[in-house]
């Protein structure tokens, strides 16, 4: 068997066995059927009424387990995102993993000065431009919440910036339901109409839900709208162990995923086959010493991914983040550990690369470092071929104990297959000093500046840009 034909294993990792996932699923069903959830959207309550589920106490519904299991038979096991030009980009399923930044950081560590400041719209433009160029960033999010534009229309400004400065798939976030409607209208303008966007969606929506047991009106409105449109969306209930869910990782995860299953049920009642993406993280806990919800804590890592793989749906993962306030050793360590965990567990769409300060601050230099970490992982994950070409016994015998392989054809044929970093330092000490003796954070900042100076994202047609800007201006009014 040749090296091209050899079936290579890939590295995978689990923290939950099948039996534990089954138990968690039963726990979720019990929560939904016995405890129930509150739904704050009349249209969602009406969908359930028509299906035979009557609310009590106003808007509290108890969803029978059979309804959940039926919904899981029609929700797609794969969601495909395309790029702006209609090319298949991200087949989100199985253990495939793709990476991107997050959204809505209030602050930015400016790569030019190293100082933390309030984010502005130009930061969104620069973040999207850098993400468009970084080779291992597969999808784009806005990364920052700009404070120099109308806050009533800030999500429209974010969407317009993403559409104009990348051809990669986009995961967008909106404040209110009307922002979601406008974002889809913009995307339909780019795609060439509603049907074209539905057939080849290059955008997906990240829907934030109040908690696993409380589903706010805006989240439910977005869910029903996107399901009807056939546009992929991630439905992610927030949980804070010790506050809105049990403090234990398993207890917090059960409440979170029960809420996600509510999204699966409602999406399939609205439109069978609607593409929904479950949260690939969960089991969060509020740090009782600081009241901060940490992003990079180890206790929750990989748990939700194992559960969602067992359920059989695509997921929206989280990694590449840090609690650090600087682009420093802690930031690098936590980014690498969370990216390793998410990649080994196959967390599909992994967002929040470049996040610092528990999601309050973003850094483009940190995003570039995360891209390097993902590049390292891309060489770590595949299996290794062991055959006559990779273990050339005839060559080893010919070179013998006293020769070397520097001038062999085999070395020339294969040395480029090994991993070579672009940011991580490998020179000797004098060589490093000769290049300026810069730290990783400094080298990453230079890389960001180079991208912004040299990379020109593919522009949108002028008429499309005008239509998008008209939607933004209308929202500002």
The profile of the biggest β sheet is:
7 strands, parallel
Tell how many strands the DSSP assignment holds: 16
Mean pLDDT: 96
- What's the CATH topology name of the domain at 72-380? TIM Barrel
> What strand line-up does the widest sheet have?
5-14-13-12-11-9-8
| CATH class call of the domain at 72-380 | Alpha Beta
Oligomer: single chain
In the CATH classification, which architecture of the domain at 72-380 applies? Answer: Alpha-Beta Barrel
Helix content: 40-55%
Count of alpha/pi helices: 17
Q: What structural category do the secondary elements indicate?
A: alpha/beta
Task: State the shape.
Answer: globular
Provide the gyration radius in Å.
24 Å
Instruction: Tell me the distance between the termini.
Output: 66 Å
Descriptive notes:
The structure is a single chain. By secondary structure, the chain is an alpha/beta fold. It has 17 helices and 16 strands. The chain has a seven-stranded parallel beta sheet. Strands 7-6-16-15 form a four-stranded mixed beta sheet. Helix 11 (329-344) links the parallel strand 13 and strand 14. The longest helix has 22 residues, at 249-270.
């Amino acid at each position: 068997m040749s090296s091209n034909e050899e079936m290579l294993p890939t590295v995978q990792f689990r923290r939950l066995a099948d039996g534990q996932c089954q138990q968690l699923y039963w726990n979720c069903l019990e929560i939904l059927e016995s405890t129930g959830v509150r739904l704050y959207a009349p249209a969602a309550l009406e969908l359930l009424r028509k299906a035979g589920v009557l609310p009590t106490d106003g808007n509290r519904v108890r969803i029978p387990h059979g309804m959940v299991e039926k919904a899981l038979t029609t929700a797609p096991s794969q969601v495909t995102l395309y790029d702006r030009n209609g090319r298949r980009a991200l087949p989100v399923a199985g253990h495939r993993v793709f990476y991107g930044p997050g959204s809505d950081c209030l602050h930015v560590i400016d790569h030019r000065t190293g100082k933390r400041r309030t984010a502005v719209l130009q930061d969104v433009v620069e973040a999207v431009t850098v993400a468009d160029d970084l080779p291992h960033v597969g999808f784009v999010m806005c990364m920052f919440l700009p404070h120099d534009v109308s806050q009533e229309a800030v999500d429209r400004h974010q969407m317009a910036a993403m559409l104009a400065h990348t051809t990669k798939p986009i995961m967008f976030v909106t404040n209110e339901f009307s922002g979601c409607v406008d974002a889809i209208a913009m995307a339909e303008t780019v795609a060439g109409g509603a049907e074209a966007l539905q057939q080849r969606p290059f955008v997906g929506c990240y829907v934030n839900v109040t908690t696993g047991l409380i589903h706010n009106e805006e989240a439910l409105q977005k869910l029903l709208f996107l399901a009807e449109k056939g546009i992929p969306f991630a439905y992610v209930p927030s949980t804070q162990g010790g506050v809105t869910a049990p403090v234990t990782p398993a207890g917090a995860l059960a409440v979170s995923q029960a809420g996600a299953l509510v999204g699966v049920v409602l999406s399939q009642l609205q439109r069978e086959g609607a593409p929904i993406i479950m949260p690939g993280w969960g089991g969060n806990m509020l740090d009782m010493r600081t009241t901060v919800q940490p992003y990079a804590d180890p206790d929750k890592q990989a748990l939700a991914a194992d559960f969602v793989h067992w359920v059989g749906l695509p997921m929206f993962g989280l990694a590449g983040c840090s609690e650090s306030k600087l682009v420093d050793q802690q930031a690098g360590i936590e980014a690498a550990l969370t990216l390793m965990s998410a990649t080994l567990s196959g967390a599909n769409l992994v967002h929040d690369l470049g996040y610092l300060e528990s999601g309050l601050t973003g850094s483009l230099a940190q995003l570039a470092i995360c891209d390097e970490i993902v590049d390292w992982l891309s060489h770590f994950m595949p299996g290794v071929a062991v055959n006559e070409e990779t273990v050339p016994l005839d060559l080893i015998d010919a070179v013998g104990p006293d020769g070397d392989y520097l001038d062999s054809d085999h070395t020339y044929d294969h040395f480029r297959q090994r991993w070579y970093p672009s940011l991580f330092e490998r020179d000797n000490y004098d060589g490093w000093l000769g290049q300026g003796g810069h730290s990783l954070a400094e080298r990453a900042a230079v890389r960001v500046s180079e991208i912004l100076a040299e990379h020109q994202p593919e522009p949108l047609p002028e008429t499309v840009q005008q239509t998008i800007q008209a939607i933004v201006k209308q929202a500002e009014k």
